[in-house]
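Sequence only, no structure available. Ideas?
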Amino acid sequence: MERSISSRIKKLFFWTYTLSVLAVLFTAWLFLEFMEGTMMKMDKQSEIEHLLSRHDTDQVVHVKSAMLTLTYLPTHTSEIENLPIIFRNLSIPYEGEVEFLDKEYMVIIDKVPGGTFFLAKDQSLFGQYEALMISVLLSLLVIAILLGYGLSIMISRMVSSPVTQLTQDIQSIDNLTCLPETYKDAELNRISACFNAFLSKIDALIKRERSLITMASHELRTPVAVILGAAEVIEHRQQLQADDQKTLQRIISSAEIMSDNIKALLTIVRQTKDTAVNESFSLLTLANDVTASIADATPNAKERIEIQSLKGDTLIEADSSIVRILLSNLINNGLNHNEGKVIVVISDQFIEVWDEAEKSVVNTLDSALVSDAKESHGLGLYIVTLICEQLEWRFTLEHTPTRGTYARIVFQP
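Reply:
I predicted one. Tokens follow.
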């Protein structure tokens, strides 16, 4: 599952901040408990020293005030008769909190020289302050967590905004334009520089490929034109036998297909999305025209081509000349790779061309087809791939045991 950098930074900062606040508050609570224990020990020591310095340790001593109850019993004195109720049933020694008469007392019982020391100190006021302190700490905890959450959102946006801006700049790149290298962060400028160098390499490769295709197409046009011209001259003489005439027709048909492919390559190289002439036309009518042209060049092909329209007369918007070349290559490829029928299925969402080949390459046409075009289906389907890339259509070629090989082109907006 994908996670954004912003959410990761937000969670990381929030939990780090929250754990830090909890650690600070826990440390403060431990300090308060330590201070309470220290105060209790100091009270105990001061009361014992006061008792030993001001009273006779051979006598029972009772001291009582609003918040303090102190009793000293010599060793020979009975505890039951002289001991206040709050100290009864408690072990010796004892240090802890005891609830008595709806109040909370800090009770200290310990042995001292000559007797036992009993101290009960009212902790109600201290408990109120302690409860108030805990409430304050909890309130500070809630405020700190809310503040941390707000800071985590703000910091995550501050950290991720440069990356978001870089992403938007990359998405807005058109025609291999360069990214700006004026970001505030040095790392983003280095990324931008590397990306621009990568774009430059791609641009150089595309220009080299277009130059090579254009040069090769121009070089091939002349010999193909000579072949067609010579074949037409021979045909007009009408001095050939029937078998030679069939051979000549095959030469003319192959040369015309080659000529169309050369023109298609030149058109694709020269044409871009901006220069393309899109128009609304009938796909069924165009398919019939392409079939008629193929049948004129190869008479026996007319009986082998079957056109099926699933939606009647389908209208699409594209460059009709480019789509004509696409259909011509697909149908000729089907005719050349099997001796049975070629079925053209036309819909408002896709085009399918079926043939009855027993064996074919099963492959989705992607970049691998471009490099392996010669080994798979040749120049025709390579041109089909280039046309689909330019029109932003999806092209696949598959083989099924029941229906043979089929090429499928899906129109994409």
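DSSP finds nine helices and twelve strands in the chain.
Hope that gets you unstuck.
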